[in-house]
Amino acid sequence: MSTTQVSQARTERVTAQRVKRRYAHNGAALLFLAPWLVGLLFLTLGPMLVSLYISFTDYSILAAPSWVGLDNYTTMFTSDKLFIQSLKVTFTYVAVSVPIKLIFALLVAMLLNKGIRGLGIYRTVYYIPTLLGGSVAIAMLWRKMLGGDGLLNGVLAMIGIKAPDWVANPKYALYSIVLLSVWQFGSSMIIFLAGLKQIPPEYDEASAVDGAGPLRRFFYITLPILSPVIFFNLVMQLITSFQSFTQAFVISNGSGGPVNSTLMYSLYLYKKGFSFFQMGYASAMAWVLVILIGVFTLLVFRSSKLWVHYEDGGKS
Amino acid sequence: MIGQRNSAAWVVAKHVLISVIAFVMLYPVLWMLGSSFKPGHMIFTETWFWPQAWNWQNYINGWTGIQGNPFSRFLTNSVVLSLGSVLGNVISCSMAAYAFARLNFRFKAICFGLMLMTIMLPHHVTLIPQYILFNHLEWVNTYLPLVVPKWLATDAFFIFLMVQFFRGLPKELDEAATIDGCGPVRIYTKIIIPLAFPALVTTMIFTFLWTWDDFFSQLIYLSDVSKYTVPLGLRLFLDSSSQSDWGPMFAMSVLSLVPCFIVFIVCQKYFVEGIATSGLKG
């Protein structure tokens, strides 16, 4: 296209070649995408449709599904007290653990940011809980540590405080899981650290010269520049927190107890599907979860216009 | 103000603060490590983590296993499952990523969009139909439902990660290879894969960790104790948990965390990059 005078015929030939090049690798692409395509059809898209269908049925896996219309969905919101409880537990968990975790991650990242010696070692140490925290081993440790005669109460007893069994008390059990989640702030911290490195030190210095104190500099420089990273961390944490399962399962020994105080949404879904074999109901719950996560993510995205600042005017 | 911040006292104070937070944070892990060497009755009475004597009895008792199944069996099962998953993810995801990053084909935009959508999708939605499908295939209580999806690139996140990486590799290499008569298959095996080492390692590390720690799907699909993996095996200790079992339970917990730890120490560079650039969760 570099010459200005090209004949009609040549243009046509070039476009034909372009089209050909555009689809030049149809065969090879099919070969390379074959595993993914099979997975997409049989393990993702197909199951999604089936799941949607089953959610309108009563299905126990032993007998054929029978159509019940919207019954599963209406039962959930009108007469299933445990479902409402699981929503409450999950919302509380998300609302408490996500902000605390992010604030903590940001504070530690800021402590580590300014040219401190041994950054690599500190970063490693702070990441260890995140590395190990998702495992059953740590969930079991947590349960033992916060139990009646566990480590925490041992320490509290030394300073003369007689504390309850945190895991067995319905008032505190959920917060022991929150603590476990906050403890794993490592990956958010690493992302914050990467974000903080992008802030040119001149900004800070210039405003310090202008007489801005550390607090002002934090709120007027650091936070706005970091807001895209905060936004990213917030979305990631929201999505994963809504789905958390292992910790609640292990700490409550699969029951969601005491008195359903740790009955997370995923845990209740699991019980409905695989303990009571109410596959239809569990599928309906899965779709409600998708909608919930979708709505919350959308809200965060919408709100981002108000508080997320992109320096280059919107290009990532 | 700036001068004050960089003064020696401030630097020392900062190091002390950071170290104290780090110690408090790591204390649970240290306590578990120490407790794994203590006799059962001393675990609750001692809050200081350092054991008075290094007693390996808990490891011996834990290793002989539970309900007639040696712990080595759970470990072997987990290793097999993890290796199968790692290989599957690396091969199938890198293939798909190569197609998205380098090949021109019909419906590319739609396929790419679908791939991105599956990253966001909570697995709960496909959980039950997949279970029904695997149940029909009589795969329940085998490792197939856990491994086969990895060979079909269902962890689309890694496709995305590798697409991003492949796009950063110079296109001139492909063009030169094409002129020399290489087709897409040879370009993929001889050029892209060797150059994509960092992305492949990141995929391997995180697939390994996620499979090693995965509890939900192993809980659903495995029912024979002899087929149990480490997470399921560990939970048996909790079920039978009289206080005297704490020691062996902690010992095997520590053992179960060792592979994660080794991978982390050896591959630290890839960890930090993987998390910082793409938000991978550890």
Provide a descriptive summary of the structure in words.
The complex is a heterodimer of chains A (about 325) and B (about 280). The mean pLDDT of chain A is about 90. Helix content of chain A is about 70%, strand content about 0%. Chain A has helices at about 10-20, 25-55, 70-80, 80-115, 120-135, 135-145, 150-160, 175-185, 185-195, 200-210, 215-240, 245-250, 265-275, 280-305, and strands at about 55-60, 65. The model of chain B has no long low-confidence stretch (mean pLDDT about 90). Chain B has 16 helices and no strands. Classes of the chains: A mainly alpha (about 325), B mainly alpha (about 280).
Termini Cα gap of chain A:
32 Å
Strand content of chain B: under 5%
Classify the helix fraction of chain A into a percent range. Answer: over 70%
- Uncertain segments of chain A are none
Return Rg of chain B in Å: 24 Å
Oligomer: heterodimer
Q: Would you identify the regions of chain B where 5 or more consecutive residues have pLDDT less than 50?
A: none
Radius of gyration of chain A, taken over Cα atoms and rounded to an integer in Å: 26 Å
List the main descriptive attributes of the protein structure presented here.
A: 316 residues, 14 helices, 2 strands, flat, B: mainly alpha
Write the layout of secondary structure elements.
The complex is a heterodimer of chains A (316) and B (282).
Chain A: H1 8-22, H2 26-54, E1 57-58, E2 66-67, H3 71-78, H4 81-113, H5 119-133, H6 136-145, H7 151-158, H8 173-183, H9 186-197, H10 201-209, H11 214-242, H12 246-251, H13 265-275, H14 279-307
Chain B: H1 2-5, H2 8-35, H3 40-45, H4 57-64, H5 71-102, H6 108-120, H7 124-136, H8 144-151, H9 156-167, H10 171-179, H11 184-195, H12 197-213, H13 216-221, H14 230-239, H15 246-266, H16 268-278
Helix pairs in contact in B: 4-15, 5-8, 5-9, 5-12, 5-14, 6-9, 14-15
